[in-house]
Amino acid sequence: MSEELIKDFLNQYDYDIRKSHDARWIDQKCTMDVISLIADCILEHTKSDYKKEFAVGDIWHSPYTIDNVQEIFRKPNPEHAAQNEYDKWFGQPIKLLGYSKILNCETRSGRNYYTVGNREVLEYISIRERNAFLFLCLYIEKVLRDSDIYYLFEAFFDAPGKNTFLSMKKGFSDFTIKYTPINGEVECNRIFIKVLNPLACKYRKFGTVKGSMSKDIITQDMLMYNQKNWRDLYSEKPKEKTREEYEATLKPDNKMADYKIQKAKKIVRQYNDVYRDGKSEVYEERHMLDLASQIHHIFPVSEHPEIADYLENLIALTPTQHFVYAHPENNTKYINKEYQYQCLIAKAGTIKENLTDEKLNPIYNFEDFMNVLNTGLNTDKFKDITFMDFNTVLQTIECFY
To answer: 111-116 and 206-209 as β-strands: parallel, antiparallel, unpaired?
Structure first.
C-alpha cells in the first residue's frame, strides 16, 4: 500500500475534533511500535472472521497478546495486572484505530465494541513499525487539517524557535480544552508530544522533549515505546566480542527480534497460501504438487540478524527444497550458495509481481529488498538502483554468484 492509498482511505472521512469533541483521537500510548503490535494482535484474534466483534479486554486477554506483550514490553501478565493499566495500554491505540475508522466502534451500556472496518489498512500497519509510522503521520496531519489547527505546526516547522514553539503548544492546549472534555494543560501537553513528534520526525524538524523544544531533530527511535531498537543493538556490537558473546547481553531485546521474525514468517506464509495457492516460490517441476510449508531465510539469521525480520529475506519453500537443497543434509547452519542464488532470483520475481499487480495485497517494499541484498551480499551496489528496476537488480545479483 502506497502513501497515496493511505491518503485515499483517510480522505473518505472528516476527523474534525470541533465536530466529534473526541479528545482520544490520539493518546500517550499511541506509539508506532505499540500500534503495529496491537494491529497484529487484533488480526490474530479475529483471524478470517471479518465480522467478529471484540472489546479491548478480549485483545489483551488473548494468549497471543499475553505472550508477546509480556515478553517484549516487559509488562506484567495481564491476567494478574491491574485492569486500569491494560485498559490504557490497549484501549488508547484501539481508540485511535476506531477514530480513524480502521475499526468500527459501537457503544453499548457504556462499553465500546469493535469490528474490523478496513482490514487492508490494518494489515498494512501490522507488517512493519515503519508502516505504522507512515499511517500515524498521515492520520495526525489529516486530523489537524480537518480541525483547522495545522497552521500552528506549519508556523513552527517553517521558523523553529522558542516563540513559535510556545505559540504552537499553547494553541494546541487551548483548542483541546475548548473542544474536548479535557480541561487541564498537563493532560494536553502529554497528548501534544504524541502529535508533534511523529510529524517532526517525518519532516526532519525539531520537536519536543520534556516539555520544551528539542535540541535535535526528532528521529524514529525517539518515538518508540521501547526506545532502544533491537537492530541498533546489533549494530553496536564491539569488534572485540563475538556475536554470540554480544547476543548474551541482549536477551531481553531478543524477545522483540523473535516476535518480529515469527510475525514476518506468518505474513509471508499467509500471503503465499492466499495468492500462490501455497506453492513454492522457487519453481521446480518435480515439486509442483508439493506445498511450501517452510519459510526459509535466504540470508541466515546467524549471519545477518539485522535483516532477519524482513519479508524480503524470507521465501516459501517445500520441505525438500528447504532441508535438502537450501540446507544440504539438513544442516541449517550451512547455506548452499547456488540455491541461495535461485532463491534470490525467485524472490525478486515474487516482489515484482506483488508490487505491480493491482489485484494483490502489497506487502513487500522495493527499498527493503535493496537493503536485504546490500546487507546479505556485503555490498552497496544495490543502493543506487532506480526504483522498481528489477532488470538491473537481477543483473547485479548475477555478479555475486
So the answer is: unpaired
| Residue bearing cell 516482489 | 351
Q: Is 242 exposed, middle or buried (0-12, 13-18, 19+ CB in 10 A)?
A: exposed
Distance of alpha carbon 302 from alpha carbon 70, whole angstroms: 25
> Using an 8 Å Cβ cutoff, are 61 and 135 in contact?
no
Contact 230, 221 (CB under 8 A): no
Per DSSP, helices labelled H in 159-250 are 162-179, 185-202, 230-235, 243-247
Question: Whose grid coordinates read 501490522?
Answer: 126
> Distances from the Cα of 184 to the Cαs of 25, 147, 164, 192, 243, in angstroms?
17, 20, 21, 12, 50
pLDDT of residue 252: 41
- CA-angle at 150, arms to 148 and 125, nearest 5°: 110
Buried b (16+ CB within 10 A) or exposed e, 49-74: eeeeebbbebbbebeebbebbbebee
Q: Average pLDDT per run of 10 along the chain, which is 401 residues long?
A: 85 98 94 95 90 92 84 65 70 96 94 94 94 97 98 97 97 97 94 98 96 95 71 51 50 74 96 95 86 95 93 96 86 86 97 94 94 97 96 96 94
CA-angle at 43, arms to 37 and 46, nearest 5°: 140
Helix (H) or strand (E) holding 340: helix 337-356
Give dist(CA 343, CA 283) in Å, integer: 10
Torsion of CA 307, 309, 310, 314, to 10 degrees: 100
The cell for 278 is 501455497
What does the block give as the cell for 71? 515478553
Task: Please state the pTM of the whole predicted model.
Answer: 0.87
Q: In 193-227, which positions are buried (b, 16+ CB within 10 angstroms) versus exposed (e)? A: bbbbbbbbbbeebbbbeeeebbeeebebebbebbe
**What's phi and psi for 295, nearest 5 deg?**
-110, 115
Q: 315, 343 in Cβ contact below 8 A?
A: yes
The distance in angstroms from the start CA to the end CA of the chain is: 33
Every domain of the chain and the residues it spans: 3-216, 230-398
CA distance 67 to 78: 10
